[in-house]
Amino acid sequence: MLDVTPIHQGWVLRHDGASLPASVPGCVHTDLLTAGIIPDPFLGRNETEVAWVGRRDWTYETTLAPVPGGHEQTDLVFDGLDTAAEIRLDGRLLGSVRNMHRSYRFDVTGLSGLLSVHFRSAYGEAEAVRGRLGERPNAYPEPFQYIRKMACSFGWDWGPTLVTAGIWKPVRLEHWTTARIAGVRPVVRVEQGVGHVELHVDVERTRVEAGLALGARVGGVEARAEIDGSSGVVRLEVPDVALWWPRGYGEQPLYDVELWLSHEGLLDVWRRRIGFRTVELDRREDAHGSGFTFVVNGERLFARGVNWIPDDVLPSRTTRERYRTRLTQAADAGVDLVRVWGGGIYESEHFYDVCDELGLLVWQDFPFACAAYPEEQPLRGEVEAEARENVVRLMPHPSLVLWNGNNENLWGFRDWDWERRLAGDSWGEGYYLGLLPRIVAELDPTRPYTAGSPWSGSWDRHPNDPAHGTHHSWEVWNRQDYADYRLEVPRFVAEFGWQAPPAHATLRRALPGEDLAPDSPGMLHHQKADDGNGKLARGLARHFAVPEQGFSETDFDRWHYLTQVNQARAVAAGIEHWRSHWPVCAGTIVWQLNDCWPVTSWAAIDGDGREKPLYHELRRLYADRLLTLRPRPEGLVLAAVNQSAEPWHCRLTLRRMSVEGELLAESRPVAAAGARSVADLRVPTELEPVGPKEFLVADADGLRAVHFPAPDREVPYPRPRFDVTVAAGGRVTVTAHTLVRDLLLQADRLSPSASADRGLVTLLPGEQVTIGVRGWETADDLDATSARSALYCVEPAR
User: Fold this and answer.
1) Which residue of 191, 255, 564, 598 is 20 to 30 Å from 693, comparing CA positions?
2) Of 525, 495, 685, 492, the residue nearest 591 (C-alpha)
3) Which secondary structure element, helix H or strand E, spans residue 272, and what is its range?
4) Are 653 and 668 in contact (CB under 8 A)?
């Protein structure tokens, strides 16, 4: 039977002639940080002080004791090495590697002694490849496309430049005799209630003549097969399987699969979990263009998605528990699809396991982003090897529903002057339209593939044509007001978003001792977007009156609050509009769910794991049922969006109000939206608000939509007046005496560990809301005065 010996202890990192204790899995930065050699790169401007780390070579060492007898072969297995390295054992070169996204195996039978892993600087490796293959354009002045490594290690418009090196995944010795299971490719289908499982098995042998047998079990069904040479197939049929569904559409039953290899006894075992479901991507042409609609188990879905980046720029620190926390936050916000973005990594098994359990669909990018990637060696062979390994590795997961060739590279070739600059050089097209679809079709025929995001499906159309396939909507953030989201109805919006700073407590931790202002040194360092603060300022100025310079602490607090409000409103403007146009628009994927460090960014959850107001707004926007008031050419329309499986018949209350609280007109119509459908109701002309002193509010079944026809800077809001009471356990109740718009309790201002259970809420005079506060250090001591100090709302222009 195959035996495993982990090699996680006894490692050292060589640094300037000294031996530092090293953690495996880990990386150079985490080891240097633990040893006190470098400061925390997440704090202040320390990132610049540790830039030298990525420019140096590093060596990890440990000692392998002699292996006791009893097995014919011993393999040294690295699940992941970051990135360009030479591995030696007792002075013997075992091999050279250059890909973070692959695993490696070396025969070390009979060997022992000093195990050394020498990492060459990723910069050195990438620059050497660039020197051989020639310059290629990209979106950032770093050579990330010349090495198969997490691209965002080299910095992004939301991330620091921390170019890592190290043994970032587990390492072990595997001892075996006669044969071992070298790979399993599970093809899972379901037809007419019967689950079909084909286990395509590759084996490695020490004895060619030995007769080998395979056995497998799933769902109470067993089957057996013989090995022919070095491979075999076990086929199983499981009757009456329970289907795996996305969250909100059904349950997520998972089946344990066990496969064993034997020869005069058990040799090796492979275990995974699978789920039975069908997935299609409907890209047919219609009157509106060509669609991009996920169909799971025959059910057409509006995908409620978020983009996922590595949750830590030092990815070895992302634990199973952290994956579960972050993905549970996503599910609790109503998300049903997570896109693993192409500038990061193929995530850990823990990530996909949690998605399987929570019913989160996974859209998986291959790791190519925002650059022209050479197709020559040594990169082409690495790309094919990593793709083959990871497609097979991730196939068991029912949550995985799409393979995507790249992020924005097809678009970049067309619009970012790449074609002229490349002058015929390779840039990745052969990967996205040739190699990768062939690999997916060969290895994973049950899942769809798309060449890129965005991609219209053909060079006959613009790659980012909103009428065809996937669309990235960035002109609004870059140059326009968020109301302009309403000018288009793309078939599927795979990226869009709006920035805001992180929570106040996150800023205080990340920028210790700094007098906070939008342009203070630390704030500017933790704003990586091109003209990010300028875009924030222009976006605010379209809606609010804010100071332009000379920020006091109070002014900063208002700016901080208003930028977070603007982020939530901007994303709401897009999602409400696009959801109201289902089924023409079949999904939105917000940029982005998470951050990899404390930074001003598009994230809904900041780098310390704190939820911004946008996060809570997503809970409303991605709920099964949504009310939204939309200005359209024919007038103001109320859309009742019903993504639940049951019809929705509701009695609406429409009130035209003055900002002073006077009821000007009222109506109580009925709306009826069928299952998975949208009902539009034209708002009567007499209910449409006129001028900046009026607004419309719609209520039904505990849901609310509010429409103000003028920007806030023109609205003569009354000075907000409200009472605050606090009950035991940290429940804060606010009772409004005036209109209170976008009330927000910033619980982290009460205690860094505190969080509120809801975000922005608009109250009419006489209404009240109760907000739960979790994590307050002394909940029984939370009083009304403290709570009031952490409450913010929109106030009259000064």
Assistant:
1) 564
2) 495
3) strand 266-274
4) yes
Q: Could you give the 3-state DSSP secondary structure of residue 442?
A: helix
Partners of 472 in the β-ladder: 495
Q: What number of CA atoms fall less than 13 Å from residue 208's CA on the CB side?
A: 1
> Of 593-602, 712-721, 725-734, 739-748, where does mean pLDDT reach its minimum?
725-734
Q: What is the DSSP letter of 433?
A: I
- As a whole number of angstroms, the distance between CA 199 and CA 186 comes to 5
Q: From CA 151, how far away is CA 367, in angstroms rounded?
A: 8
How confident is the model at residue 783, as a pLDDT? 87
CB 622 within 8 A of CB 571: no
β-bridge pairing 92-98 and 84-89: antiparallel
CA distances (Å), 398 to each of 189, 195, 297, 360, 633, in order?
10, 13, 12, 10, 43
Quick count: other Cβ atoms within 10 Å of Cβ 193? Answer: 12
Contact 148, 98 (CB under 8 A): yes
Is residue 387 within 8 A of residue 367, CB to CB? The reply is no
H/E stretch holding 181 = strand 179-191
Question: Mapped to the 3 state alphabet, what secondary structure does 443-499 carry?
Answer: HCCCCCEECCECECCCCCCCCCCCCECEEECCHHHHHCCHHHHHHCCCCCEEECCCC
Which strand (E) or helix (H) includes residue 682? strand 677-682
210 confidence band (pLDDT: 50, 70, 90):
confident
Q: Which residues contact 403 (CB under 8 A, 6 or more apart)?
A: 364, 366, 391, 436, 440, 444, 447, 448, 449, 450
Asked if 259 contacts 214 with a C-beta cutoff of 8 angstroms, the reply is yes
pTM (two decimals) = 0.97
How far is the C-alpha of 665 from the C-alpha of 654, rounded, in Å?
A: 8
Judge whether 408 counts as a catalytic residue.
Answer: yes
Phi, psi dihedrals of residue 653, rounded to the nearest 5°: -115, 115
Whether pLDDT at 171 is above 60 = yes
Using alpha carbons, select from 460, 455, 246, 206 the residue that is nearest to residue 334.
246
Measure the CA–CA gap between 608 and 235, rounded to whole angstroms.
Answer: 47
**Considering only CA atoms, which of 230, 235, 218, 216 is closest in space to residue 183?**
230
Beta carbons within 10 angstroms of residue 62's beta carbon:
18
Q: How far apart (Å, rounded) are the C-alpha atoms in residues 770 and 788?
A: 13
Read off the pLDDT band of 798 (50, 70, 90): low
Catalytic site residue from 347, 408, 429, 495: 408
Strand pairing class (361-365; 337-340)? parallel
Distance (Å) of CA 624 to CA 249, 262, 303, 619, 689? 10, 50, 11, 10, 28
Distance CA 96, CA 678 (A): 57
Between CA 529 and CA 531 the distance in angstroms is 6
